[in-house]
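Re: weekly structure request thread

Next one in the queue (180 aa):
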Amino acid sequence: MNEKQQKRIGKFISLILRHEPQKIGLTLDDAGWANVNELLAGLKSKNHEISFDQLKQLVASNDKQRYSFNEDQTHIRANQGHSLNLDLQLEAQEPPEMLYHGTATRFLDSINEKGLVKGSRHHVHLSSNESTAHQVGSRHGKPVVLKIASGKMYKNGYVFYCSENLVWLTDKVPTEFISY
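Done, posted below.
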């Protein structure tokens, strides 16, 4: 599988595991896990056939580490970014003092008014470094990196989680904790 095919299939798997499992007749459990054999069969039914070894390579090489296998590699799930109602079984953690959020400049008026809101997703996504946040923001237009006073938020009772691929998650970020 070449890089272009890998990217196309990776995006399709992300869509399936995060938002639309029914598109290939797949069922996720309450924690977002899908049976690997059922995923592969569903992919094949939509002309996205890959082998188990190719799926393992896709999971291992994904630059954003979007997916994870369970211990015996019989089930797979997206690490975060779901719009589905799931219990990802994340444990609350104390965040670093500062986290970052990458976005496009065109969203700043809304952010300055409402803060960062999760929208249709489970959480607001935050990065532990500015370069990752910049990459995320550049996917949406002219990028801007917001600094999030996550340590202060935590001390004020806000809950944070860290996903398996090291993305920090929280329900919202009020404007008073955001700077440029």
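The two ends are 41 Å apart (CA to CA). Helices lie at 3-18, 36-45, 52-61, 108-114, 130-138, 150-155.
Next request, please.
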